[in-house]
């Protein structure tokens, strides 16, 4: 077991290297000179040259990449080319917001999506089934910025129940989490429903029934636990994407998160910030995938973990 | 004979699929007594499994429908019984062993827990220690080391999984065991072991058994009585001796016997029954075997034959009309 | 059991991740003020209040200001970090300049009580106040002023604004003399600007510019308290401010990038002031809880034609563009009609601007444009308009595209991100027909033309030559820059603008407008021509 975990963690290293190299090269090759952007349109040529020298832009791309990674290994992610702040402290100050948003929206997706998926499957083709699917589709089809805006107008201005923007208290995260969760709700409901229906048709469910188990017991002990296997995998994968993907929600609700940090950095070609975030996200996704696999192995005894 | 343990009377069951209505059982009638072992023989699609599932009301919901007839178990009207009653019967009084052991066990539950589940459902008065002891006992009885009770099904071979299935079925000491082709999915050497085991346990607990199979040899060895099912009906029934002496048989049964290879004689070709099983979505008038029967007469095509009995041996064929009364 | 250990490991890993998320919220800011961090939450706590925007709810001494862009550099003339307009509101309230820019571009005394300019325009004598103290208690003296100007005047951006700067001499504790190599007409404006924000010399020498940036110390009415990345900056009133403690005690400066969010927050009372607001959205606001104002800004929107490559080399083609663009339509489409239509690339409020009637103006004339086009060599080639995506310029470009197509020009719009825009237009091969981008002139003077047309600046190595420079124009702009007599300056610039107009180097579309919206119970909020320049100590609740 520990050997497997070690192996997986070691495997992360080439993955992170590959991703970071790829991104670094792309950022470096993208049109636009960071020095010019930083110094502004009124800067003199000599000053721009000096800036380029200072940022190390005159070295070949590969050398720059190696220098950067050498720093990373020492734990030094550098400072923003644009405003001089330490990349890691900027990132870490934004991270809690993004994590909170991600976790809360994940929780909502799970807490609402799975039960409704189960109910839809149990009462297949009934009124609840259709209603659930239609509602889920409806919510998923609404773009986040519109949904968020409507929520703000209704719950903040009209009703005054919740704050519209900011990230100070947990209360501030309610609407953003719901907005973010709405996008994945349909998928979650459908996945759960399909998984449950498929398991329900399987032989061992019939065996359980033949033993005299009640329907609710069959669902809870046999169908649900078997049906959750694909759902667990999808949850893990989904969470990994939340870390960098909530840009619209962050923007609409003025939450200072990782996504907005990243987008702004890309716009002004602030390579250290982009790279710092990429490194962390790659590792994070790798670790989440590992956790998902471990959880899966834990739930399903048929899965063997030996690489 | 006294009260029968199980009485199935003129049972009609259909499957309502999107394309058509499949008439799986068309007036199936049979009886079973306490402790009796009955073999149910027939081709694939004859309706044997449907019958077993109907007894326990395990037909697929909405699709499977009992349209006519009655099933009476120990005086209880099964068809009219509510879910609560059925749950009391399933597993405790009537238990079932399924055909494919590879898929019949819950993969994420230990085998011990799955057997334990039966006790949990039906013996609330037993305490945990007693239940655990019982699980250990039954495992030993079916030939599995009780130290393996906390392992998962995928760690066992096909034969062992079926033993576990048997253990699950018998742990509550039911009165009736429905075994739906329990050895079809296993290889021949294991088959003998499993069947011997079942017969031992059946004798030990005096359980009545319905053994569904397409293998005449198995019936001959392990059953007292036999019914032959064709197109959802019983077309011949009697004791194994009566049916297997081959003096008098339904043409279909005759055909079955003829198609079995014989160790003693050399033949170039086996003799199958010509034609195919009747289309259950489009049943013919008259005798359902008519189109394949070499003895077919005019009346066979227009009228459905009743059962003609001679003592305990009954045959549903006009051929036997003159031999004694209805 | 192995499985149990595994479960424990998985659960604890997930717990760690969750705790990281739910832990300290918000995380402590990377930058804190030198005198300790007391993040005042008064303004933000009100966000969970009901929609009733009453002053009582907001707290009579707190204001929440919102802006789309994040300020992140708090040292006015940092030697390596970039400068942009986002920091202006913070900088001008934490620090102070010798002279304050009035709402009508007039010059009011601030740190300097009075000043004199020499006859030849090369020396500026400032008489400084005697009662000014920095936030850390140090007294402000002429040493600080001289140090600031000498340092700022030699940074890249600083030397652009403080043009012709030579050095500053300390006469005594209260007097400095600023020496220029040549006169510079708008120098007084420069003394109201960012690079004249006075810093504490001894503190700087002690801790260096990076530490100073983290914990700014100035003489202004507000102390810098904290910064939370991507979220807000908090300021607290300076009780020992020389002009008296300001009425507003706490200012929270929030970052809010989405326009709709800004509007909702305004209506909801979550924010009290919105600066650099979007006029289109403001014009749709229907509530008397919010007031809004506009001011002609210091940015000019100019369609600059590539005159050295492609169809732009043909003057008739350029003339067709010059009179073929309906600026009125553009104004309505982009600015709801609030902008002022442009004729020359000098904003109406700038000093040095020639008086109306003294320079040539090209009116919109569709028929004439068609004539010019017919007279040109244009044969249906693609005319590519480059602009920055997601800005008002993109909307403008699309409107222009429609107009040009009607004229018979095969116009396409290429809207790219800012970095690519620069790469294409400034540093590339000139693979474009015309570029559309606003340009701000912080010094609020006609001298802004220098950076658009003077070859000393425009034709530096690595920059694309768009063919707009000439010796004649260079001469006029240089003369205008160093001329002392205001009337003579106007003449030079009139001639320069005529030259530009005659050559149809571009089409000046409109002058941008600064808009700000504020709670109607708030007094004193007024935008200035310089984008982002607001003085919080002018504000008070009713």
Structure overview:
The complex is a heterotrimer of chains A (307), B (326) and C (542). Chain A has 307 residues and is mainly alpha-helical. In chain A, α9 runs antiparallel to α10 and α10 (215-245) runs antiparallel to α13. Chain A contains 13 helices and no strands. Chain A has a domain at 98-299: MetI-like (MetI-like fold), CATH 1.10.3720.10. The longest helix of chain A has 36 residues, at 87-122. Chain B has helices spanning 48-55, 83-89, 111-122, 128-141, 158-170, 188-205, 216-222, 240-244, 251-258, 298-302, and strands at residues 6-16, 21-32, 37-41, 64-73, 76-77, 94-97, 176-180, 208-213, 225-230, 233-239, 308-310, 313-315. In chain C, strands 1, 2, 9, 10, 11, 12, 13, 14, 15, 16, 17 and 18 form a twelve-stranded mixed sheet that branches. Chain C has a four-stranded antiparallel sheet with strand order 5-6-8-7, covered by helices on one side. In chain C, α12 (327-335) runs antiparallel to α14 (392-407). Chain C starts with a helix and ends with a strand. The chains are: A mainly alpha (307), B alpha/beta (326), C alpha+beta (542). At the A-C interface, α2, α3, α5, α7 and α12 of A face α1, α6, α9 and α15 of C.
Radius of gyration of chain B: 21 Å
Query: How many E strands of chain B?
Result: 12
How would you classify the helix and strand content of chain B by structural class? alpha/beta
Radius of gyration over C-alpha positions of chain A, nearest whole angstrom: 24 Å
Task: Write down the overall geometry of chain B.
Answer: globular
* End-to-end C-alpha gap of chain A: 10 Å
Task: List its salient traits.
heterotrimer, A: 307 residues, mainly alpha, MetI-like fold, 77% helix, flat, B: 326 residues, alpha/beta, four-stranded antiparallel β-sheet, 12 strands, 23% strand
Brief overview, please?
Chain A has 307 residues and is an all-alpha fold.
Task: Give me the secondary-structure topology.
The complex is a heterotrimer of chains A (307), B (326) and C (542).
Chain A: H1 2-29, H2 34-39, H3 45-55, H4 61-73, H5 87-122, H6 127-141, H7 144-158, H8 174-200, H9 203-210, H10 215-245, H11 247-252, H12 258-267, H13 271-299
Chain B: E1 6-16, E2 21-32, E3 37-41, H1 48-55, E4 64-73, E5 76-77, H2 83-89, E6 94-97, H3 111-122, H4 128-141, H5 158-170, E7 176-180, H6 188-205, E8 208-213, H7 216-222, E9 225-230, E10 233-239, H8 240-244, H9 251-258, H10 298-302, E11 308-310, E12 313-315
Parallel strand pairs in B: 3-8, 3-9, 6-7, 7-8
Antiparallel strand pairs in B: 1-2, 1-4, 4-5, 9-10, 10-12, 11-12
Chain C: H1 2-22, E1 31-32, H2 42-45, H3 55-58, E2 62-67, H4 88-94, E3 99-101, E4 107-109, E5 112-117, E6 123-128, H5 142-152, H6 156-161, E7 165-172, E8 175-180, H7 187-190, H8 201-214, E9 222-228, E10 232-237, E11 250-255, H9 259-268, E12 273-274, H10 279-282, E13 290-305, H11 315-324, H12 327-335, E14 340-341, H13 366-375, E15 382-388, H14 392-407, E16 410-416, H15 418-425, E17 434-440, H16 450-453, H17 455-458, H18 471-482, H19 486-503, E18 506-519, E19 522-523, E20 540-541
